[in-house]
Amino acid sequence: MTEPRDVVERQLAAYNSHDIDAFVATYAEDVTVHRADGSRLRGRPALRDRYAGQFAEGRCRAEIVGRLSEGDWVVDHEIAHGLADEPVRVLVAYRVREGLIDRVDFLG
């Protein structure tokens, strides 16, 4: 069985290398992403649509400054680069079930 930390690490590597196919492949078909602004993304197609442009531009990168995990959950303290003029600090909680991320909560 794949450990949740390993799945989240694969997702991070795909994000940082701007590999949209590998990135989306780490998520469940019915993934739900709860964004910090209160909006939600549902499903792999919505996830691909949301990230395809910034991946194509090669302008995003996440630096992990802390990681906690318990059971199905992995929580990363990230510094996101390339999304705004200045780096953005954020907490992101990932739930991993059956080897895929099925829920993401952006906490700040």
Residues in β-strands, percent: 35-45%
Radius of gyration over alpha carbons? Answer: 13 Å
Residue-averaged pLDDT, rounded? 95
Poorly predicted ranges = none
Approximate shape: globular
SSE run: HHEEHEEEE
- Structural class comes to alpha+beta
Written account of the structure:
The chain has 108 residues and is of the alpha+beta class. 31% of the residues lie in helices and 44% in strands. A 6-stranded mixed β-sheet has the order 2-1-6-5-4-3. Strand 4 and strand 5 (88-97) form a beta hairpin. The protein starts with a helix and ends with a strand. The mean pLDDT is 95.
Short précis:
31% of the residues lie in helices and 44% in strands.
Record keyword descriptors for this entry.
single chain; 108 residues; alpha+beta; globular
Please write out the topology.
Blueprint: H1 4-16, H2 20-25, E1 27-34, E2 40-42, H3 44-57, E3 61-70, E4 73-81, E5 88-97, E6 100-106
